[in-house]
Amino acid sequence: MIIKCRPFYLPREYTAILLVSVYIPPNNNNSNRNDALNELYQHISEQQTAHPDAFLIIAGDFNHADLKSVFPKIHQHINFPTRGNNILDFVYTTQRGAYKGKPQGCVLSPLLFTLLTHDCTPSHNSILFIKFADDTTVVGLISNRDETNYRTNYTQHVPLTINGVTVERVSSTKFLGVHITEDLSWTDNTAALAKKSQQRLYFLHKLRRARAPPPIMYTFYRGTIESILTSCITVWYGACNASCRKTLQRIVRAAEKIIGVSLPSLQDIYGTRLTRKALCIAGDPTHPSHSFFSLLPSGRRLRSLQARTSRLKDSFIHQAVRKLNSLPNLPPRPSSASGTTEL
Predict the structure, then answer these.
(1) Mean pLDDT for the stretch of residues 133-141
(2) What is the pLDDT of residue 129?
(3) DSSP label of 335
(4) Which of 53, 103, 146, 240 lies at a CB distance of 3.0 to 4.6 Å from 244, suitable for a disulfide?
């Protein structure tokens, strides 16, 4: 029996784990044991060809059959000193139990160490770096035991050059109308949207003074104010803090007082568009994020995604999966040919 699995905590060197459970009945005939080993070798070779980067574990009861006769590359790395270094349950693998670095006297050691310390540069003119083959010494003058000057310096990254042109480093950039900062916070984006929306409220006041009917003012609000507040809302609204959300919602409440009708909140708009976009991605097998929306064997819920940080937990994919799982029943997925949906 061969089981292919992929645990959540899996070293990145492997794509999956192949668990092979073997039982060879006791038999005094060597030809029967060899036939069983050859058949086992054939099935495992097919799986290794299909999954070349998988971690192979073979365990079972071989009844004196020599597995290494057909698998010379597998080894038993689990020995028990208390039992005379005997093997328990015959657990074989193709990988060693631990990784080891290169010894200090190895030929590759100076080269690997040089590559490791290549980007280590001094941040002050009075500091001298002395690089040996297997060590690095930092020499600097400290007067009167005062180290404050060295603690105020921050890491200066080496400039990135592409085709002879240095790439400019900025703390924030604007892409498709969304302000993206280096710390992935949405404060700057929220401030820009709030400022632009408040400027449009002035024209809404003008329409009210001109005694425009509420349907006209509502249409103006949808086209000039709400379109700004909800621009790419599925990208940034889920990761916004409470202060940013209140700032944007105040603009919606101000527009409600001017128009005199109830307006949908940003939270409701976000939930609607999040569901629509998630269903569109889940129904499109060609979408790069389609693999994140996988159904459980029951077919009623999506597989939950693990997140170690709150920033990842509040991202679009995780929010979309939780949103679909919160629905009483998963709605039918739209086909990929239905057209694009707005962000």
Answers:
(1) 59
(2) 65
(3) P
(4) 240
